[in-house]
């Protein structure tokens, strides 16, 4: 894959052929990526790890309708859970609609991302009214 150093946004929603290997190659070659839409792609914990490690400029991430990652995998986006003492984390918007693995515990942990301004969790059956009170 060629280096796409100027690429700021990419929307790959509903692309069934996207794998964690492809995600890693993409984020490694797009260091300025600010928006990554992977709605309904086959993202697993490994793909999220790559995003966490290599997308230091990322502002918006859409993982809606992605059943392949775990709650623990998603927490790799949170510096204290990823084992990072300091981070360049700039994530402002996170879409997790219809991800059944999302719970109140997940929302509480995501609260540690200081830059996060909006989380979309419509259809997440593990999220209760109590979880929304963070």
Description:
By secondary structure, this protein is α/β, with parallel strands linked by helices. 26% of the residues lie in helices and 11% in strands. It is built from 5 helices and 5 strands. It has helices at 20-29, 45-54, 71-74, 79-82, 104-110, and strands at residues 9-11, 35-37, 60-62, 93-95, 118-120. A 5-stranded parallel β-sheet has the order 1-2-3-4-5, with no helix packed on it. Helix 1 (20-29) links the parallel strand 1 and strand 2 (35-37). The longest helix is centred in the N-terminal third of the chain and has 10 residues, at 20-29. The mean pLDDT is 89.
The count of DSSP E runs of length 2 or more, i.e. the number of strands, is: 5
Name the quaternary structure: single chain
Instruction: Give the helix level as a range of percent.
Output: 25-40%
Instruction: Decide which structural class fits the backbone.
Output: alpha/beta
Mean pLDDT: 89
Contiguous helical run count: 5
Taken from the alpha-carbon principal axes, the silhouette is: globular
Separation of termini?
Answer: 41 Å
The largest sheet has its strands arranged as 1-2-3-4-5
Instruction: Compute the CA-based radius of gyration.
Output: 14 Å
Order of helices and strands: EHEHEHHEHE
Low-confidence stretches: none
Please write out the topology:
Blueprint: E1 9-11, H1 20-29, E2 35-37, H2 45-54, E3 60-62, H3 71-74, H4 79-82, E4 93-95, H5 104-110, E5 118-120
Parallel strand pairs: 1-2, 2-3, 3-4, 4-5
Helix pairs in contact: 1-2
